[in-house]
Amino acid sequence: MTEARESAGPNGTTHARHTPGSLCRVNLMARETAASQDFYGTLFGWEFRPGPPRTGSYAWALLDGHEVAGIGQLPPDRHLPVAWTPYFASADVDRTAETVRHSGGTVGVGPLDAEAGRLAIASDPSGAVFGIWRGVARPSAGITGVPGTPTWIELVTRDTESVVKFYKGVFGHEPEPTVPADPGRVVLRIDGRPVAGVHGVGNALPRDRGPHWLTYFEAAEVDDAVRRVTELGGRLLRAAHDSPYGRVATVADPEGAVFSLIRTVV
């Protein structure tokens, strides 16, 4: 899920940091964090470790001891959706936040100091929410391809061209069309490595959702996972189907946070 570089500390030691522009974490901001932990713990087999006391009800989701995601309390005074939010790495969160503003985006939270780093939460010109993060890459983070881990993110938006320019300007993402005949689908890359997808759907975008980032989680069996979601109080939004990338379905948890389940083609 992440890539890391080494940066020198004040005493000459080096600490691994995420490559600027790469996906470095996914967080769920929920209203009822205990209920969300029960849901995802049962669905994915996650266990949870509370963050420091000053982070409130924030907790790291662990899979076999590895950090795979975070779940925190949605601030009641913030007009933010209950949603999975991807965080992109930055070498300087304050400078990146300023670039977001100058590029037509909005910074809704921060920049502020957080556990072992600094963060901000912003939205692109279309309104899709994302995070900005600078911090040490944790040695236990970054497992991928295992059921219960985030495996991909995709921006679902109306117009691809304008938002691609935004992310290129803010994070240095380089776009590459996935299908020459479909300019609405591109992959964003850093140093040649895929970071995220962008899917422009035009007027097919649901009016009640607006542009949004969609997180994909690996599932051993997508159809079984969908049944489990509904048994736990979630909803099926798009039925399981085969795609060039694997079998995939889109669901929502009991609070309405949307995510996709995928069995990736190897």
Automatic annotation (TrEMBL):
Judging by the UniProt lineage, the source's domain of life is: Bacteria
Please give the SUPFAM superfamilies that the UniProt record associates with this protein. Answer: Glyoxalase/Bleomycin resistance protein/Dihydroxybiphenyl dioxygenase
VOC domain residues are 22-135, 149-264
Q: Which Gene3D superfamilies match?
A: 2,3-Dihydroxybiphenyl 1,2-Dioxygenase, domain 1 (3.10.180.10)
Q: Where is the stretch described as Disordered? A: 1-20
Q: Which InterPro entries match?
A: Anthracycline_SecMetBiosynth, Glyas_Bleomycin-R_OHBP_Dase, Glyas_Fos-R_dOase_dom, VOC_core
Q: From the Swiss-Prot or TrEMBL record, give the protein name.
A: VOC family protein
The species this protein was found in: Streptomyces triticiradicis
